[in-house]
Specification:
The protein has about 350 residues and is of the alpha/beta class. Helices cover about 25% and strands about 20% of the residues. It has an 8-stranded mixed beta sheet. α3 packs parallel to α4. It starts with a helix and ends in a 14-residue tail after the last strand.
Length: about 350
């Protein structure tokens, strides 16, 4: 039987394979390596996107019939236990005669979880938690979305050092420089959706696309999402987006994010103005902050955030600064909410 060192080496390879899959969308990145009794790799596979074979089935497909009998499958995520566009991977492993399954992270999905239980019931030896931290880091946003039942929300704004998002006349292009703007477009492309309010659409007529320095569309584009009750004209630039925009004529943000999750959106990028940004923050729906700071002062009242429900200093929203990066003349501060207590950090206690 494969030794622990063989299993760890196989899991590291499985993680490399998983990273080749698409990072966006409803499905997680998953890799699988199959070992024989001597700990030698005999097959590998990974998930290439919705509707394609899952990693375990992809790996098994590379073996001749009966070759997997008595083998060990090393998988980055607990084999699924449901039938969607494809069948349950747990059953595929059982049918192939796999004797042992080693996986890194348990599947938190309501429908897809339970693969380990199914495998054990069939007499398969199951080991969980191998290199769990590495696997969790790879699919952190997907896992968080599964726990929360909504997309992971990244809130972005660009401001002067004194916290202004625009001059008093409303002009804001450009507070930050080209390096910061390029970083924004790269992060847009890595998101499933980009969210703005109707106020931003009516004031700025944004295209809500991800573009390169020459203005050309990047290969990956976020779905444009517009929240608000004011009508958007048919001539708006977002109607020419590669994806059809989604409109939510409501102020119920919790309903919006639940709907987006049901549509398969796992990471949303909020890039609206102060009104929408403040509403997401006040609702406790922000998981990550991207704050682009330009070395300039604007004064006036056009602050990056408005009322977020803080009436006194004891109610302040404390953040943890995860990183600070220099982008040309500008700074990017990446931050996340600091839980008020260990208990409040548990996924089931978040909105």
């Amino acid at each position: 039987m494969a030794e622990q060192s063989d299993l760890e080496a196989a899991m590291r390879r499985a993680l490399e394979l998983a990273a080749q899959g698409p990072a966006r969308g409803v499905n997680p990145q998953v890799g699988c390596v199959i070992l024989d009794d001597d700990g030698q790799q005999i097959a590998e596979g990974w998930h290439r996107g919705a509707g394609t074979a899952h990693a375990e089935v992809d790996a098994l497909s590379r073996l001749s019939p009966g070759a997997a009998h008595g083998a060990t499958a090393v998988v980055t995520l607990e084999p699924c236990n449901h039938t969607g566009r494809t069948g349950p991977c747990a059953q595929a492993l059982i049918d192939a005669g796999i004797a042992r399954v080693v996986y890194a992270v348990s599947d938190p999905g309501d429908a897809s979880a339970g693969g380990a239980k199914r495998l054990r019931a069939a007499g398969v030896d199951v080991q969980a938690g191998l290199l769990a931290d590495d696997a969790t880091a790879l699919i952190a946003d997907w896992l968080a979305a599964a726990w929360l039942g909504r997309p992971v929300i990244t809130l972005k704004w660009a401001s002067s050092l004194d916290g202004r998002a625009a001059a008093d006349d409303g002009s804001s292009q450009w507070i930050t420089g080209p390096d910061a703007r390029a970083d924004v477009h790269r992060r847009r492309a890595a998101s499933d959706a980009i969210i703005v309010g109707t106020g931003t659409v009516l004031a700025d007529d944004p295209s809500l696309t991800a573009r390169d320095a020459a203005g050309e569309l990047l290969s990956e584009q976020p779905v444009p999402v517009v929240i608000g009750t004011r009508p958007v004209p048919n001539s708006a630039a977002l109607h020419r987006h590669p994806h059809a925009p989604l409109f939510f004529p409501t102020s119920d943000l919790n309903a919006v994010v639940r709907d987006l999750h049901a549509r398969g959106i796992r990471h949303a990028f909020v890039e609206g103005g102060p009104t929408l940004a403040s509403a997401f923050e006040a609702a406790g729906l922000v998981d990550r902050y991207l704050i682009y700071l330009a070395p300039t002062l604007l004064g006036g009242g056009r602050t990056a955030l408005g009322d977020i429900g803080v009436g006194s200093i004891s109610q302040q929203h404390r953040l943890t600064v995860d990183s600070i990066e220099r982008l040309g003349d500008d700074l990017l501060v990446v931050a996340s909410p600091k839980p008020a207590s260990p208990e409040s950090a548990r996924p089931e206690n978040r909105n």
